[in-house]
């Protein structure tokens, strides 16, 4: 591991309430599924250091900030289970690789983008490239490569990432359609059912998200 | 002697002028913590749910309890209607994810909390149900359960062993007292939660005045107050300290004018500065945020809360009437 190539990478997990954002994150970082946990209020954060292609990455895994701008289409698709630890690490590490290879680095937006001092302009990260979608990846467990979003030309190879720089990814967590409640009934959690995880590359979020609780 | 004077206060009969005095006296005595034996009645009086007039208390209780169950009758069946099912669903999945752990897993408790929260949400369409409100039922519920049990630890108590009528009283009393509390902080939960945004901003200004070093340190590491203090405001510090401490804190909040809305700000400032040494030792964004979101208060008790409240009172005294004190 070449620590001089250390990169800070930020992953934001968003999604409807109760889909398992916290559970997924804890499974990834602590290798544990908590039967018993509390609703996350506002945002919460965990970190983990991993190595991708010999580059140590510090993932700043932040849950639940931002939402609206992420509603676009073309979302690579994973199935994961926080409870049974299926595909969790693969999902995160694929994201990490994606971020390494596809983000435009002159963007000053991560990890703490859009500081008020930096610009009076509202935080809309123009430097963030729009990603071309990679259709749907195979259902579990997909090989990491298959889920990598196809990148429009212009993505930087990982070797060009300056050490000490950082990037970010948004992970949008959704319940599979058949697990969603009907007639007001909540989905059965704790059944170990697989969650659909939609992955989308992104760059920045609004400085003051209006919605903070899920 | 404190218990003695409080109990005396509850039993006294007064003229209307006397009731004012009585309320003042009750607040003064309760500010530094209410003994467990008289807390249920003290909270009902302090919140304004019960009238000071002894002769009217029983009839008020009966009327309010009846009124609450009339709401249940009227609204609760609509929880699966198209227009309300999202609200109900959110409450239903949030309740198993509340604190503290032990109580919430009892089906009887779950049922009661669902009814209280759903009725409150339906009756307060300006905000509706917002995550975090669910936690605010717990202190009332726990304190009012204590009125009927001998056990020291309510968390190990099987609530379903209480008679149905008693449970209904606890439910209605919890509903009304929670409503009174929420009336005072409604803008915390209306769209975009402006009350919280404003208070977080005020906290930031206050801290920049009282401990510039801590403020600068957070700023240098790009930690935003909203990232940790949102929850402090949204849940009145309930997620940051053990339940016994929240209950003690609420003795004071209910004794202090605008305790939950205004005094809470000073408590938050004192709370943040309380960790200055640890904060200044953390040298990067994520370590700071992880620390601030997991403050080591698990062993806290009355003593720590008393120190915190004394410091908050000092800050309020120093800054409240001098807004320029916390303008740069």
TrEMBL record, chain A:
GO terms for biological process: endosome to lysosome transport; phagosome-lysosome fusion. Keywords: GTP-binding, Nucleotide-binding. Transmembrane segments: none annotated. Belongs to the small GTPase superfamily. Rab family. GO terms for cellular component: late endosome; lysosome; phagocytic vesicle. GO terms for molecular function: GTP binding; GTPase activity. It comes from Apteryx owenii. The keyword GTP-binding applies. The keyword Magnesium does not apply. This is RAB7B, member RAS oncogene family. Residues 145-168 have a biased composition (Low complexity). It comes from the Eukaryota. PANTHER family: RAB FAMILY, RAS-RELATED PROTEIN RAB-7B. Pfam families: Ras. Residues 134-168 are annotated as: Disordered.
From TrEMBL, chain B:
Gene3D superfamilies: putative rabgap domain of human tbc1 domain family member 14 like domains, Ypt/Rab-GAP domain of gyp1p, domain 3. Residues 33-257 form the Rab-GAP TBC domain. Keywords: GTPase activation, Phosphoprotein. It comes from the Eukaryota. One of its GO terms (molecular function) is GTPase activator activity. It comes from Apteryx owenii. It holds the Pfam family RabGAP-TBC. This is Rab-GAP TBC domain-containing protein. May act as a GTPase-activating protein for Rab family protein(s).
């Amino acid at each position: 591991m070449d620590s001089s190539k250390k990169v800070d990478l930020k992953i934001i997990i968003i999604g409807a309430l109760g889909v398992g954002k916290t559970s997924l994150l804890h499974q990834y970082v602590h290798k544990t599924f908590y039967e018993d946990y509390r609703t996350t209020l506002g945002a919460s954060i965990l970190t983990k250091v991993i190595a991708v292609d010999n580059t140590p990455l510090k993932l700043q895994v932040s849950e639940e900030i931002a939402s609206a701008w992420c509603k676009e289409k073309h979302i690579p698709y994973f199935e994961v289970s926080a409870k049974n630890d299926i595909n969790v690490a693969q999902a995160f590490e694929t994201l990490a690789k994606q971020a390494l290879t596809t983000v435009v680095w002159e963007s000053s937006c991560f990890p703490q983008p859009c500081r008020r001092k930096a610009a009076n302009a509202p935080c809309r990260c123009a430097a963030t490239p729009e990603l071309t979608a990679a259709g749907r990846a195979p259902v579990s467990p997909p090989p990491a490569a298959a889920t990598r979003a196809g990148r429009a030309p212009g993505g930087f190879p990982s070797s060009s990432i300056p050490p000490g720089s950082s990037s970010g990814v948004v992970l949008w967590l959704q319940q599979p359609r058949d697990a969603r409640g009907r007639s007001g009934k909540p989905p059965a959690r704790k059944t170990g059912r697989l969650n659909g995880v939609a992955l989308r590359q992104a760059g920045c979020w609004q400085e003051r998200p209006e919605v903070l609780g899920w | 002697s404190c218990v003695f004077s409080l109990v005396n206060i509850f039993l006294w009969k007064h003229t209307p002028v006397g009731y004012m005095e009585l309320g003042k006296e009750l607040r003064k005595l309760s500010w530094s913590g209410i003994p467990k034996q008289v807390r249920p009645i003290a909270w009902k009086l302090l919140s304004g749910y019960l009238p000071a007039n002894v002769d009217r208390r029983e009839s008020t209780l009966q009327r309010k309890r009846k009124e609450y169950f009339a709401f249940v009758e009227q609204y609760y069946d609509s929880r699966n209607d198209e227009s309300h099912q999202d609200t109900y669903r959110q409450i239903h999945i949030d309740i198993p994810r509340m604190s503290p752990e032990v109580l919430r897993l009892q089906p009887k408790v779950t049922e009661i909390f669902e009814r209280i929260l759903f009725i409150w949400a339906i009756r307060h369409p300006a905000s509706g149900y917002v995550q975090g409100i669910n936690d605010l039922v717990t202190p009332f519920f726990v304190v009012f359960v204590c009125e009927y049990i001998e056990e020291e630890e309510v968390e190990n108590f099987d609530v379903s062993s209480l008679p149905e009528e008693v449970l209904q009283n606890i439910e209605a009393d919890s509903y009304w007292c929670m409503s009174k509390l929420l009336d005072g902080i409604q803008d915390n939960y209306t769209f975009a939660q402006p009350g919280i945004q404003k208070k977080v901003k005020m906290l930031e200004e206050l801290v920049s005045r009282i401990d510039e070093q801590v403020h600068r340190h957070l700023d240098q590491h790009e930690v935003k107050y909203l990232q940790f203090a949102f929850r402090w405001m949204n849940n009145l510090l309930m997620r940051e300290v053990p339940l016994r401490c929240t209950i003690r804190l609420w003795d004071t909040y209910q004794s202090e004018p605008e305790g939950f809305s205004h005094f809470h700000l000073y408590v938050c400032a004192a709370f943040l500065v309380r960790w200055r040494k640890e904060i200044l030792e953390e040298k990067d964004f994520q370590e700071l945020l992880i620390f601030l979101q997991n403050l080591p208060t698990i062993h806290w008790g009355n003593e720590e809360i008393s120190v915190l409240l004394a410091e908050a009172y000092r800050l309020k005294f120093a800054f409240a009437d001098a807004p320029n004190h916390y303008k740069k």
